[in-house]
Amino acid sequence: MKKNGLIACTLCAALCMTAVPAVQGTASEISLADAVKTLDGIAIDPAQISTENYKDTKYNNPISSEFYCADPTAVEYNGRLYVIGTNDHEQFEQAGPEKDNTYEKIKSMVVFSTEDMVNWMYHGEINIGEIAPWIVNSWAPSVVSRVEEDGKTHFYLYFSNNGLGVGVIHATDPAGPWDDPLGKPLISSGTPGLGDCPNPFDPGAVIDDNGVGWLSFGAGIAADGSDYMPGSNRIVRLGEDMVSLDSEIAEIPAPYHFEASELNFINGTYVYTYNNDWNDHSAQWDYDCPVPSQCSMVYMTTKTPLDPASWEMRGEYFINPGTAGFDYSNNHTHLHKYKGEYYLFYHTLMLKRGMGITGSYRSLNVDKIEVDEETVTIEKIGGTKKGPDAIAPVSPFSSQPAGELNNTAEVSFDTSDRHATKVVSDAAGAWFSVRDVEFTASPDADVPDAEPVLELTNVDTIEYSIEVLSVDQPTTISMHPADSSGNNVTGTVDVDGPGKYTITCDIKGASGMMNMGYFTLSNDALITFVVGTMTVNGKYEFDISSELTNTREWADGLRNIWNGYGDGDTVYTSDYADFRYSASANAIELYAAADIQDPGLGNAPLLDTPVTFCARVKGTGRLEVHLDEPTGALLTSIDFDSPDAFRTICSDEVGDVGGTRDLYFVFSDVGITADSWAFLPRDTQTETMESTTETTTASDTSDSAVLYGDVNCDETVSIVDVIMLNKSVLGAETLSNAAHRNADVNLDGQADAGDSLSILKSLVDLVSLPTA
Length: 772
Hints:
The structure is a single chain. The protein is mostly beta strands. Helix content is 11%, strand content 37%. A hairpin with a 4-residue loop joins strand 20 and strand 21 (377-378). The longest helix has 16 residues, at 3-18. The radius of gyration is 29 Å and the shape is globular. The protein starts with a helix and ends in a 9-residue tail after the last helix. The model is unreliable at 1-40, 599-603 and 684-703 (pLDDT under 50).
């Protein structure tokens, strides 16, 4: 369990029993006094639940469902991964949705963080225009960190000052506050030794294993350059202070360079990545690797970064988003290793498409990527809408901040505490969701989800869920999957305009597939549509996220046996099924978990110990918890009337839930703020309370030895002492002289909430208590 999660959980448990209106009585009476009869209450009308979510509930991309942002960079701090990006949302709010994104109003960055790669917290903006008022704009950040002599971690964030140069700001926390160490650009057109670099921007920073910092930057075509070799890419060693230059400025010979410099250091090797241009790269390519596609991401490596001749072209590693089913756009990627796995951050126009606006506002995505560290070889991938799987499930049995979420509809954020963002409802029916919450057999169990056993399975039906984006006249779409014998199967749907449709094909128990489906139309209509999901045999759902159109020069279709798969390669995958290529059968075969009845639940055991849903909220109304969709099954709810202060409210007991589920928290009214939530065992609360009651009358001798933190004087320090001290702070308990003396762990003569927090931190080894 996370240490900070344990602190929050124990605080929540204590608050559930003490931070209530002066209720006297037994533990169960105190607990039930704050409970809500969820089945007898007035539920939120499903028709009222918002559909104004711009991120699809099936996907983990983009990482933010609310904010346009681009050009990602990332840094780890205290076990969390912080991602910072260009604040396209600033341009969006000032220019409006109908204006294209021209970037000139952007003077800030946005900050997100995660522990599991699917649920993200928004920490607010870094207002660089206020921190460094000399800037023109702030784009394309690159952040590094190191522990310095004061014992603190220091962060250096390099950014593009428009296209004019590179600035740098500094902090000791990625959420801020930040300061301007130079009061001027680090790199500008007047920097000595710069040479002919028309646009000295888009910095990429890294600190190597020797503790030496490096900075790459540059774009445009030099006077003696060409489309093939622009001659404007630069790299320089940073000074010990990280805000000065400590070497000559060298050129990186990067063919077809466009923008988006970035640096990594892997296994003693410097890795330079960049976005190439929109030219036809087959016109000239003098390297021993395949010609990269237009406006894709490529990488180069070296052991000696200041020697231009040492850089080796390694080729393409990330295709243009348009080739992967998104809108075509430029890109700026960041490669980062987190918790033992590599992830690639990039941007698309995915959120803009969901919002239905015309301006080219970008959103941050992330996908897992393979890196062979021994050979420093990066896998070639395309972006996905599904995004990565969670590193680990969320425990519902420890307190979780409301701001750590996957998706939203009609909410805003209170970032007054930059490390504990709160969620505020902007409309009745607003909601936020948390992905992959694991309800195991009991709150105390550590039972991982069993891996489903996949068996060779025949294909009965394929159902395609499609969204028509544009069509110039009514038409009939036909999808044509082909079974393993090559027989085409046809399913159709009539289309009269943009919208969502379903096409079902009866495969009649085929043993495998040759083609997963291509489309035809009944006339000469021009059409673009997205195959979102493909549901096989009525229960195995595959995320396809593939855009098909007849407006391009090449034919569109889903995957088939001619795509160059090796024996056993996965063609499509879902949680409970895979399509794999079989060389011997020359077919794409379905392997599925035959015993899965409900793919959302997966036969997981239900909770064997009932729990109560507790949330710290402010406002008046109701907060409902739904399963797997905003209008999914109602799990529980709480009603509250606390318009001016936060209260911790608990629901009735919940037991009829199991497995790993997505939770949707739905607000009944405008202006409700959620701070945190947890599902806490009622019997654990009762046992803790009874233990407290038994020990509150413990020895009152003033001459007993001091044991700091031992508030109930039972010669041990535990959560019971925290609860007793909290009750004292609230006036529900009177401490003896010895208890007061033991409680004053901060040695300021008081026994107050500050001492309670210190005792909590000591229980998870974050601080040490004084000794007598």
